[in-house]
Specification:
α8 (173-207) runs antiparallel to α9 (213-234) and α14 (303-313) packs across α15 (315-329). The protein has helices spanning 2-7, 17-35, 58-97, 103-110, 120-138, 159-162, 168-171, 173-207, 213-234, 237-240, 244-248, 273-278, 285-294, 303-313, 315-329, 352-360, 366-369, 374-380, 385-401, 405-412, 417-429, 434-442, 446-493, 496-501, and strands at residues 142-143, 151-152. It has three domains: 11-141, no CATH class; 157-239 and 303-331, no CATH class; 348-468, no CATH class. By secondary structure, the protein is mainly α. It has 24 helices and two strands. Strands 1-2 form a two-stranded parallel ribbon. It is elongated. Residues 471-488 have a biased composition (Basic and acidic residues). The chain crosses the membrane at residues 12-31, 60-80, 117-140, 186-207, 219-237. Keywords: Membrane, Transmembrane, Transmembrane helix.
Length: 502
Amino acid sequence: MDPNESKKWDMHWYDWLVFAVPTIFIVSLGLESAFGTTPGPGTAAHRDFRAVAHWFDPVFFQYNLIMTLVAVLVVPSLALSYTMKMANRKECRLYRDVPPERRGEIRQRMGRRASFGTYRGSVWLTTVVVLLGSSILLLFKPVSSSCELGVDFSLGANMLTMGPFMELYETNRDSYYSHLVRNLTAFQFGFLGAYVYFIGSVVRAYFTMDLTSNTFVDGTIRMIVASLLALVLSFAFDLLLPHELDVIAPSTAAPSDVNAGTPAPPTPPAGEEPREATSPEGSGNGEKLLSKQEVPFPARLSLLPLVAFFLGFYPKRAALGIERIVVKLTREIIPAMSYRALPLSMLAGMSYSHELRLEREGFDNIENLSNADPVDLAIRTCFSYSQLKQWIDQAWLASHLREDYPGFAQRTGITNSEELHCFFSTCEASHTDGVEQLLAALSADTATIASWRLRLNTLRILLNTNSSPQENKHDLTEREHRAPDIARPEAGTGSPKSQTDR
């Protein structure tokens, strides 16, 4: 264990850049907000990130900077703390649990995880994604006019943000900005939901000694996919709110285009119409706030952040729900595909989070898990060797019994292949037919007894066949240890063949 203790402090100087670069960037924005001068009417505006420091109140902006810095630095901090404390604890636990003949593999493979260099690429990737997402969520402010401080979307937006509503830029600027704010809201809260789930999964992996580079890569992909999924599905809100979005901001459409069930906005005083018509960009912020307060805000739009957060927190379930809806709609066009694989939920002690963890390692059903190596999975996951050995033995028995496995385990109390092999061995030692005893507990129907008898005899043969190579390997290992002791007397007394001839 001593080499790993010294290796955990072996951190190259460029590894500290993952802490230094975000810190320098955020601190420079804070200094610009505190000591920089806001560009006035006669001065040129900043054309770089320094302009962000003057979009908000200085105290409020610096508070957002602190939250952004904490959200970004939590990623490399957890990776560094894990390599310093938790990696060696997992190695000690596995060294006690696994069989003695495979302990050398544990020390060799776990020694690599005690270095920050193992997490370098994945931590950098996650840090950059979190910095970009948190900046959009906390630092950027969309505005609809160049006279205001913020991201000026009056110059236009990209196709990813607007999609088919890009044509509103030339026809209806108010509706264009309304769709833009809605799509940005979905994107931001989708990222927020994925980030909250990522932090929870990283903290769980930290305390269960399961923090690997794959954890950060999986979280990064989740944040990207969830944000884009929420953004794409935000376009479907027009199907639910076809006309209410037009009520939020006044438009140039005719009154007949508005839904009859939607109340029309109150008509502004006659004295204010010429000022808004002649100088829309020069009107004050107070007049705009007053006009927006007069228009009733649709309550159903408040569900958009909740739905986007749910898509970010549960992107897999959201994608599964969308897939089921599409399959149901295209059932007559595309034939449905069925799979005979058994789910991992059939195993005792399996939960949804355990299924996700095993699925990340490539074991998404019982048939796959029955061929897994428990020592290899114990190194790669948070589960103990004994727990994985039990699940793999259960998966072997369930893959042979198929849908009858739950009933077999409930009626006989035998849950895995090792217990079944022990049962058959005990019955054989006591000169008892174990198959007949199991048949008495399984079924009283004569029509199914013959099928069960054949299946149980098949399982007994397979268990004896699988246990024979392991016993031969164990005997070979013992003979290798005893070989030097047997060879020494032969060297002094001559060959065994010469003694026999005499």
